[in-house]
Q: What sequence folds into this?
């Protein structure tokens, strides 16, 4: 019987907000409450697990001491004149807020907990939907990400001698994770994302394939605006299963950002809940040992629905489409899955298909030979 863990604590959403902040932690609470309404944690095979905060040693496995100390000080309202040096800004993606160090260490600790539970065989899959800070660099914040919980957890797994395949389906390129493992063949990083020619962080071309021992182990599949379910899943199927099969990882680590949805206000991809579920089902087949984290998603009802669908797939449960009455009364959301698909001009569909075909062809030309494919 497949065993799963969902990592959650109210401390993960205990964050002082700046007004109208896009990366709203309430989406974590909405997802947890929707899963609870579906009785997702009422079986011994699906555990609700409270995380611990990541210790300083874990943070320093990737981040510089200067940066960690700066975040700690900013969290207390100290040294704020130095904020810009570490890419924090009152008006940018990375605002300083009281308690930021404590919340960020709990997020990193939650991802570490997920990784440890899978590595130790306590569960087959563990999901920390608060994680996924894939943009954070070793010495500065980026794209709402303060500590890179993904890199910290993968480094923890590497220290155990494990090989990791990292698959990122967020609409934004996984630049921070790619950079951290750009020179190693112990981690295979695969990122499917909206092209950086249009979207932050501006990276993620197929030509970014790694250097030195890592050459051929960084894989990027950029996609055009208006890429729909059909094209996205086609591109995934062309590249991901064969590379993961060749790499033979001990653990598959996934970032499950759902800002690929057509209602997301910050991106231009065109997936539905059907397409997103199709991606998660494919990951389920590739990952007998699976660590999953959240990521992007900026339309609250979409995030809760997508991550609820994702956890259902992880634990082999099919949720009814009608959302439980208790949740409907709180949030006014009636259906779990999208009804129908958005209509697209045929020209946009054709352009998205051609762009995906070109990206896949480049990956096959530049990366596949390093894996004997």
A:
């Amino acid at each position: 019987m497949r065993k799963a863990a969902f990592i959650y604590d109210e401390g993960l959403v205990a964050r002082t907000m700046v007004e109208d902040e896009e990366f709203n932690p309430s989406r974590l609470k909405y997802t947890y409450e929707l899963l609870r309404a579906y009785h997702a944690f009422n079986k011994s095979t699906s555990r609700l697990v409270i995380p611990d905060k990541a210790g300083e040693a874990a943070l320093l496995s990737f981040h510089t001491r200067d940066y960690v100390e700066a975040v700690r000080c900013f969290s207390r309202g100290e040294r704020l004149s130095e904020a810009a040096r570490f890419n924090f800004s009152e008006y940018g993606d990375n605002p300083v807020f009281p308690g930021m160090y404590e919340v960020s260490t709990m997020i990193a600790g939650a991802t570490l907990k997920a990784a440890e539970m899978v590595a130790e065989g306590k569960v087959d899959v563990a999901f920390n939907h608060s994680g996924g800070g894939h943009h954070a660099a070793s010495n500065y914040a980026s794209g709402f990400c303060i500590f890179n919980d993904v890199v910290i957890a993968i480094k923890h797994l590497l220290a155990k001698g494990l090989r990791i395949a990292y698959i990122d389906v967020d609409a934004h390129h996984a630049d921070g994770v790619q950079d951290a493992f750009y020179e190693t063949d112990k981690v295979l990083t695969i990122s499917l994302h909206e092209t950086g020619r249009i979207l932050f962080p501006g990276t993620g071309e197929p030509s970014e394939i790694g250097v030195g021992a890592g050459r051929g182990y960084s894989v990027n599949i950029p996609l055009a605006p208006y890429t729909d379910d059909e094209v996205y899943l086609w591109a995934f199927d062309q590249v991901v299963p064969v590379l993961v099969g060749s790499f033979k990882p001990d653990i598959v680590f996934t970032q499950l950002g759902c800002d690929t949805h057509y209602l997301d206000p910050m991106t231009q991809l065109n997936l539905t809940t059907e397409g997103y579920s199709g991606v998660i089902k494919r990951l389920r087949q590739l990952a007998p040992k699976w660590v999953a984290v959240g990521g992007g998603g900026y339309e609250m009802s979409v995030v809760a629905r997508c991550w609820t669908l994702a956890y259902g797939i992880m634990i082999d449960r099919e949720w009814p489409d009608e959302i439980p009455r208790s949740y409907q009364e709180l949030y006014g959301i009636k259906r779990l899955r999208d009804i129908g698909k958005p209509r697209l001009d045929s020209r946009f569909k054709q352009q998205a298909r051609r762009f995906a075909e070109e990206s896949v062809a480049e990956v096959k030309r530049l990366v596949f030979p390093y894996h004997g494919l």
Remarks:
- The domain at 4-371 is CATH 3.40.800.20 (Arginase; Chain A).
- The radius of gyration is 19 Å.
- The longest helix spans residues 346-366.
